[in-house]
């Protein structure tokens, strides 16, 4: 009399799908790191403020950097006020309440900041925030 073995054979571990997933995660994190690097890569020293909310970056938020010399950089490219308005108008048509964060250098003139705010409002963007940093604690 022959008895059959009812226990299943041990499953072998497949490494190829696991390696694929690890590489996809690695690519995802490298790409997202590159996008956030465009904000911090610039040498913009934002003003300090003791009060204020430490706001996390909103999803889809547009970062406008205003450098010391008054030049404006958006998404890694230098633009003037006309190009900025065209870009923001195109975005505002598709997305209502589009968030914009202005990162102005502490030494840039207030007039230049007001010009950028005015350009945002002319483009139809009203959800504007300003980047600041906390002052360093006394030693």
Unreliable stretches (pLDDT < 50, length at least 5) are none
Beta fraction:
15-25%
Shape: elongated
Strand sequence of the main sheet, in spatial order? 3-2-1-4-5
Give the biggest beta sheet.
5 strands, mixed
Q: Give, in order, the helices and strands.
A: HEEEHEHE
List the helices and strands and how they pair.
Blueprint: H1 15-40, E1 62-66, E2 72-74, E3 77-79, H2 81-94, E4 99-104, H3 110-122, E5 127-130
Helix pairs in contact: 2-3
Can you offer a commentary on this structure?
The chain has 139 residues and is of the alpha/beta class. The chain has a domain at 44-130: Nucleotidyltransferase, domain 5. Helix content is 38%, strand content 15%. The protein has 3 helices and 5 strands. It has a 5-stranded mixed beta sheet with strand order 3-2-1-4-5. β2 (72-74) and β3 (77-79) form a beta hairpin. It is elongated and about 95 Å long. The mean pLDDT is 82.
In short:
With 139 residues, the protein is an alpha/beta fold.
Task: For the structure shown, list the relevant keywords.
139 residues; alpha/beta; Nucleotidyltransferase, domain 5; 5-stranded mixed sheet; 5 strands; elongated
